[in-house]
Amino acid sequence: MPAPEDFDEIYTDELKDLWSANDQMSRVLKKLTPKAKNAKLKEMLQQSQEGIAKHTDVLKELIAAAGEKTSKEHCKGMEGLVAEATKHCIEEAPKKGPLLDTLIVAQYQRMTHYGIAGFGTAAAYAEALGKTEDAEKLKAATKEIYQGDDYMNQLSQTVNAEAEGA
Ligand SMILES: [Fe+2]
Q: 57 to each of 92, 122, 146, how far by Cα in Å?
């Protein structure tokens, strides 16, 4: 990818990177969801996929509104996180149960935190560029991702307690 020429381009590059990050996270979550044993965790992973799809629609809409070709920009950060999640939760994973659940939570939260950083940055860019509507939509998405992460924090207490007793 060529170097960005202005702030607008830095902003749209961020959106395209996030689109790729979301797609990659969604693909690995599809693989991890059936591996979760705790019912609440499984449900959370399913809901999360819906949330990601919704946020991806927002990204596509904002990229198109910026007059950009709606294309992704491969996100290497998420590629690395997906590789870690695959290693710990699939390739070198304990059998389905509390120990695997606790690893799924950890890997999910790493990926989620990447999303919070990216959406938060994109919201700040939109605000600085005077794109108020974009900023509102991106802030709303960031808030939803935060809420999901908060819920996962609570859930991790149950999951970790189950792992400790396993
Ligand atoms: Fe990225």
A: 34, 15, 18
Q: What is the DSSP string of 25-87?
A: HHHHHHHHGGG--SHHHHHHHHHHHHHHHHHHHHHHHHHHHTT--------HHHHHHHHHHHI
Residue 48 CA to ligand 1 centre (angstroms) = 19
Q: In angstroms, what is the span from residue 17 Cα to ligand 1's centroid? A: 5
Ligand 1 centroid vs 155 CA: distance in angstroms?
27
Q: What is the pLDDT along the chain (166 residues), one digit of tens a residue?
A: 779 999 999 999 999 999 999 999 999 999 999 999 999 999 999 999 999 999 999 999 999 999 878 788 999 999 999 999 999 999 999 999 999 999 999 999 999 999 999 999 999 999 999 999 999 999 999 999 999 999 999 999 999 999 998 8
- Say whether 8 sits in a helix, a strand or coil: helix
Q: In the block, which residue shows the tokens 């990601």? A: 52
Ligand 1 center from residue 133 Cα (angstroms): 23
Ligand 1 centroid vs 73 CA: distance in angstroms? Answer: 8
CA 85 – CA 66 distance, rounded (Å): 33
pTM of the model: 0.96
